[in-house]
Amino acid sequence: MQATVRVPVVIRGRVLEDCNVEFGGRHDDVRFVVPDIRPHLASLLLRNPSQMADLHALRFDDIVDYLARLGEQLDIHRNAHLQAAFALSCRTSGLSAPILRYFYESIPASFLPAVVRETADRLVGIDYLEGWVPQPSRVHSGEPTRIRAFGARCVHVIAGNVPMVAVGTVIRNAFTRSDAIIKTPSNDPLTAIAIARTMVDMAPDHPLTRHLSAVYWKGGDEVVEREIYDPRAIDKIVAWGGFAGIKHVSGYLQPGLDLITLDPKHSATLIGPEAFASDESLHHVAKRLALDIGAMNQEGCVNARVVYVVSGTDDAGLGRIERLGRLTFEALQALPEHLSTPHKAFDPALKDEIDGLRYASDEYVVFGGKRDEGAIIVSRTDAPVDFARSLACRVANLVPIDDVEVAVRSVNAYTQTIGIFPETLKIRLRDRLAYQGAQRLVSLGAAAIFEDAATPQDGIEPVRRMCKWIVEQTSDASMLEALATRT
């Protein structure tokens, strides 16, 4: 039975609940209705950037205190807004309920003062966020040049594969003292709005509340987007998403508008021959590989999909990689449910591809893939399956190779995370992989573990780019007069 869900919007501390525009969700059984934001565009957009002065009047400590109080309010066991977001995400997300619950229960930890301080200091620098930082200068007769990071007017077109994208966007917007319009995604339309509504409940007149909006509009609505993607109204667009979405947003670019893209990525895995050193080692590698494949039900760009294994391509090598494939499939089924479960909406087109491989047993061996449990496809040549870009729903392809160079040459600018075993191989190849385009190198099994969130992302530093970096110079008056005097 198809359900229709009401999704309000939040514009600068006001909650609008006059839902009268209906949209389809990512799944056929869910539709939702939202307020029409066209009549509210004037209040949504901040056409006078001087109105951000109230943000910059805040001390960094004020921001940390506000976020700490907000984090305390974002307890899913007590927060009705988050409970509604969780309930809707259980229907719209590619993640199953145990995984979603784990993420929602983790939200308050992101707002802890120590976490916010470390994140802000390492991603931008608290001193640059707080004031004008002197820089040594010889050109200007010893007078220092000063630099400060100011917030900007940003539109965030966020992804909805995990709710933590919305969480991170709110926190980054706050500590950079920026003005944010968050365009919510159809596979997670409520999480950002739930956080914004909690801010309104907690402190409706606070500058951080008034400088955050969370709204939904149908991508491609020219009436809305012509108004919003205008350099007189915004400074930057931070866009997550697929190829078509990024290409669409880029069509609005013009001088004065900066696009920061966190665009489509694919990740990979590289396993050296050391995996086969012993039976114990092979079981160990299989469990770690299952983590990289199955975490978040393989919904993330960080997840393993194509796995290059230096097993050899002769009969003995194929026997080795097939055993690894079997052990990995078994380990995948044993993962804790807060990390991974059988996929609740297994892609039928992918299922057809997997079924087709069963008729090519001389080229592929398939473990699983009979229902929604996921699958491990083992190639019998050194080439991935021709539908490698479509691997999802806990399905990975193990590819045997004789030489690690085959894997290195497969890396390009679309490669984000590479899980590597053993560590010595990671150290040996890290420079080469970086040249090729890889953006994150991790130990096998850690692809979906972000032990340190205060790091670059997708090969860039998006939070620094969210800021406007302003330079102030002081020059010696006599030096300037001398320059203007003819000798």
Automatic annotation (TrEMBL):
Biological-process GO terms, alphabetical: bioluminescence
Enzyme class of the recorded protein, top EC level: oxidoreductase
Pfam families from the UniProt entry: LuxC
Membrane-spanning intervals of the chain: none
Transcription regulation as UniProt keyword: no
Top-level taxonomic group: Bacteria
Keywords: NADP, Oxidoreductase
EC number, as in UniProt: 1.2.1.50
Keyword set includes Cell membrane: no
MF (Gene Ontology): acyl-CoA dehydrogenase activity; long-chain-fatty-acyl-CoA reductase activity
Protein name, as recorded: Long-chain acyl-protein thioester reductase
